[in-house]
Amino acid sequence: MLSIKDLHAEVEGKNILKGLNLEIREGEVHAIMGPNGSGKSTLGHVLSGRPGYEITQGSVEFLGKDLLKLDTEERAHLGLFLAFQYPVEIPGVSNMEFLKASVDAVRESQGASAYDTVGFMRRAREACAAVDLDQAFLKRGVNEGFSGGEKKRNELMQMMLLEPRLCILDETDSGLDIDAMQVVASGVNAMRSESRSFLLVTHYQRLLDYIEPDFVHVLADGRIIRSGDTSLALELEAKGYSWLDDSEVA
Amino acid sequence: MADLLTPQLNAETPAPDWLQSRRLAGRAAWESSEMPTRKTEAWKYTSLFALQQPFMAARESAESAEELGLELPQLAGSRLVFVNGFWREDLSEIEPDAAIELVRFSDADQTQAALIAQHLGSVVPGNKHPFSALNDAVLADGVFLRILTGSKAARPVQLVWHNSPQVDAAINSQRLLVLAEQHSEATVVEHFSGQGHSFTNGLPELILAAGAALSHSRLHLESAEALHVGGLHAALERDATLNSFHVAFGGKLKRIDIVINHQGHGAHCQLDGMYLLRGQEHVDYHTCIEHALPHCTTDETFRGIVGDKASAVFNGRIHIHPDAQKTRAELSNKNLLTSATAEVNTKPELEIYADDVQCAHGATVAQLDESMLHYLRTRGIPADEALVLLSYGFINALVEKQRLESLRDYLKPRLANYFGAALALDPDDAGG
Ligand SMILES: Nc1ncnc2c1ncn2[C@@H]1O[C@H](COP(=O)(O)OP(=O)(O)OP(=O)(O)O)[C@@H](O)[C@H]1O
Ligand SMILES: [Mg+2]
Question: Which amino acid residue places its CA nearest to atom 19 of ligand 1?
Fold first, then answer.
């Protein structure tokens, strides 16, 4: 489904990704862990086509297409979804209006008919309840004044409504209380399917107790330096990254 | 330039006798006045060059509302419609309302004529603005709205000045006098619309007696070809409240001066406005709030969205006189540029001569936020549509603040349309 080969990317002239390889097949759940500043979010931004991130080398194929050639919205239409580590506030645009514009655009691009307003509002309210957010959040400006945890739930709500093929969750579990962590986990687990894949960026092994990944990778200094199964996460939890630094990085 | 606009002085339109002396005085003032040039501070960023071509008082046309392209908000109250400056009885409607008197100057009875003569021009400072003199000089008719003491108008009053697509270079001289007597309450919507090339010289005067509450909107929704120069003048007596809301689509040249005089204790004014420009349009808002007496408040918020090669000017002056202790005044002007070639000159001017006051002002000019745009696009929303959403979001709060639901319902789709069309022009240019 997603095939990243020797990806190099820079921001403001600074090399961040330095030859990253990653292969995700349909239905798989991958977790990426790694020290602060190692390039995890950068990977998400690059995959989403964020301006300012320049790809200097390598290739990314997504569902048989050259991802790097597509506009950001076209990537979303294909089924790529990025839950932001820091979701953006958009004052003045109501969450409901935003969700409708988003779902309409994605469905239209896929040749599906748009939901009628009533039908859409019912779905939005269901998704809102599923992530345990008060319905009032649908009327507020997008992420405007939302707490950290509320923003993360809002990202999850969008993911549920858009039904993407590949979901990249950039630290969606960070800053969440224990209940919210369960909400994220059950949301992801409910959406797991043979044709949908996940890439979870996390700092906490605990999330992986709730969502069992097929693979765990360690990203350090712009490359994946170690891959394994859930036992790798447990090992990192116990020993920290320096254990890897010694043997693999330096 | 005075010469070019002068022909309309000679196209004598009949006016009631009691207006004659005002016309003559206006004519004398206009003929001796000098056109402001860009060397004048108040006209630094606005050239009157576009006025250098003939405009004429156009004959009344007999088209239907449909043919005229007249689309109005459904406000359910009385409505007076002028087309190319001429009153159109067939398009107007008077709903009986015991709280108000609504007449054209030419129809005023003796008492009304006396009231008009007494108040007209009373809040317009003499020979400051040559266009006020011009307005006086050609004064043939106008609208007088009187809200009777202690009464509340049941429905909004709608006043429309429209330009028909059939007439080119029409001239519109708009005059409105609103007299809100003590403790009266009403809602008035001024609406400018139409197609084609036209010149409007507008001069509304709002007089609010003690305790009066007036909700006022002024919509400048004319074509991109339109020119509009004029001023709004208001006087607020003790404890009077004015809510004034302004919307301006861009035109070839729009220069609107808003002057509000707090001249009684405890008067309050909420002034909201937005200007939306594209192409090579130009809009210049000059607002001036005079706080002459204590305990008055002003909340002023203007927002502008400027795209393409358009240019906007906002000059917001708040003048707090030595006697105006306990004044609270806030002024905010935020601008969003949707192209790298758009231009805004914004200048808040606070002049404070009293010491016990609370004042705040702020002005910003910003490009479209890249991270917001990107966020929307990651959700599948195409760039041009994202621009519409973001533009809408920028002014949405001001629309939502308006209490007239029918007005909000009227504006929303038109604003969305406007942004859609405006931004479809060059979505890639956004964010500069
Ligand atoms: N616009 C930018 N200009 C300069 N440096 C940048 C910019 N954006 C990111 N970086 C740098 O790129 C590096 C990788 O950042 P990134 O956000 O991808 O890290 P991360 O692995 O997600 O870290 P964290 O675990 O803290 O979220 C950091 O050193 C960061 O400072
Ligand atoms: Mg990160």
Answer: A37
* ipTM of the shown complex: 0.96
For an interface test with A, the pick among B376, B390, B392 (most A C-beta atoms closer than 10 Å) comes out as: B376
Residue ranges with CB less than 5 Å from ion ligand 2: A 40-41, 85
Q: To the nearest whole angstrom, how far is the Cα of B398 from the nearest Cα of chain A?
A: 10
Average pLDDT for runs of 10 along chain B of length 432: 59 76 87 83 82 70 82 91 90 95 95 95 80 88 96 97 80 93 98 89 96 97 90 97 96 94 97 95 96 97 95 97 96 94 95 95 92 97 91 91 93 86 43 32
Atom from ligand 1 closest to the CA of residue A42: 18
Closest chain A C-alpha to B115 CA, distance in angstroms: 44
Lookup: tokens for A82: 């990025």
Flag whether residue B274 sits within 8 Å of chain A, measured between CB atoms: no
**pTM of this prediction?**
0.85
Cβ-contact B219, B204 below 8 angstroms: no
Which chain B residue shows the shortest CA-CA distance from A92?
Answer: B393
